[in-house]
């Protein structure tokens, strides 16, 4: 049975703990053998939201199949002692995986696990992370980044994405999808997705029919999605799905898909991809359409 050990630091954020914990707890309910363990320097751990948590003060014996998760907190706080950081380093050195949610990346940095690795954190403190750990490569505006069994994330809800990613790596995408559906998570987001993306900006409405259409577009935006397919997904006519989508989001389904493609292509280009490669990756047969879209939106010059 694999253990998921949560290192709880005072002034911790509840969702940074609860999101990943719910993922692995649900995975256990569905037949994957996980045991959740919560450790801290003291039994009672204060949370930012006011609900105290109870943890054990002794670490279990760990092996390479076990995970350590360090949820984020609101600082400045009293950090773990040097022995705890040594424990984090030792777990990685023996083949174990560690995940830092939001400010949890700071604890991994203090343990020396970010040096020479790609990492991320919440967009409001990315500059601070880069300043504290100049040997790390901070990836801007990513939901999560995995590099040699060290995973870091933007925090809050992205802790769920990290946990689903780890499940997918261990048990395959079907298992992660089962957990996501059980948790009523709309989609397992790619770690490279922007922290503040189109998927978030146009999800504040309450039209469940449009949400179903958006779910389809979000997960298959690189494909050709005829309006007839969207209409079948929405169980209504093509004219109705267009009207409902425009009323809820202010744009047509095609315009929404186009922005998702452009947003993803921009991310790929900022990470070093050529315009031609990015165009293919987001579903365009050649780069001419992508160049026109980027020029129209004032994007950076093409490579």
Automatic annotation (TrEMBL):
<dbReference type="GO" id="GO:0003700">
    <property type="term" value="F:DNA-binding transcription factor activity"/>
</dbReference>
<dbReference type="InterPro" id="IPR029062">
    <property type="entry name" value="Class_I_gatase-like"/>
</dbReference>
<protein>
    <submittedName>
        <fullName>Transcription regulator</fullName>
    </submittedName>
</protein>
<dbReference type="InterPro" id="IPR009057">
    <property type="entry name" value="Homeodomain-like_sf"/>
</dbReference>
<dbReference type="GO" id="GO:0043565">
    <property type="term" value="F:sequence-specific DNA binding"/>
</dbReference>
<dbReference type="InterPro" id="IPR018060">
    <property type="entry name" value="HTH_AraC"/>
</dbReference>
<dbReference type="Pfam" id="PF12833">
    <property type="entry name" value="HTH_18"/>
</dbReference>
<dbReference type="InterPro" id="IPR002818">
    <property type="entry name" value="DJ-1/PfpI"/>
</dbReference>
<dbReference type="Pfam" id="PF01965">
    <property type="entry name" value="DJ-1_PfpI"/>
</dbReference>
<feature type="domain" description="HTH araC/xylS-type">
    <location>
        <begin position="211"/>
        <end position="303"/>
    </location>
</feature>
<keyword id="KW-0804">Transcription</keyword>
<dbReference type="InterPro" id="IPR052158">
    <property type="entry name" value="INH-QAR"/>
</dbReference>
<keyword id="KW-0805">Transcription regulation</keyword>
């Amino acid at each position: 049975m694999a253990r998921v050990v949560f290192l709880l630091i005072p002034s911790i954020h509840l969702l940074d703990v609860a999101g990943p914990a719910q993922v692995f707890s649900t995975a256990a309910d569905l037949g994957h053998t996980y045991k959740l363990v919560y450790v801290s320097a003291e039994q009672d751990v204060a949370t930012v939201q006011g609900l105290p948590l109870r943890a054990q003060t002794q670490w279990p014996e760990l092996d390479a199949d076990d995970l350590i998760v360090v949820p984020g907190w609101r600082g400045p706080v009293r950090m773990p002692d040097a022995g705890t950081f040594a424990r984090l380093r030792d777990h990685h050195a023996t083949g174990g995986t560690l995940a830092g949610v939001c400010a949890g990346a700071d604890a991994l940095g203090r343990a020396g696990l970010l040096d020479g690795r790609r990492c991320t954190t919440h967009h409001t403190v990315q500059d601070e992370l880069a300043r504290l750990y100049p040997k790390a490569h901070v990836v801007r505006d990513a939901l999560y980044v995995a590099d040699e069994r060290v995973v870091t994330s933007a925090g809050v809800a992205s802790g769920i994405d990290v946990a689903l990613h780890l499940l997918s790596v261990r048990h395959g995408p079907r298992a992660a999808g089962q957990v996501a559906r059980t948790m009523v998570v709309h989609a397992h987001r790619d770690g490279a997705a922007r922290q503040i993306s189109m998927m978030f900006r146009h999800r504040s409405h309450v039209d469940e029919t449009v949400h179903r259409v958006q779910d389809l577009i979000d997960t298959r935006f690189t494909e050709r999605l005829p309006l007839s397919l969207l209409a079948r997904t929405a169980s209504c006519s093509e004219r109705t799905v267009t009207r409902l989508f425009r009323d809820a989001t202010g744009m047509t389904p095609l315009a929404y898909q186009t922005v998702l493609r452009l947003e993803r292509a921009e991310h790929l280009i900022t990470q070093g991809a050529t315009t031609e490669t990015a165009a293919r990756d987001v579903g365009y047969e050649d780069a001419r359409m992508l160049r026109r879209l980027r020029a129209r939106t004032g994007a950076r010059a093409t490579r």
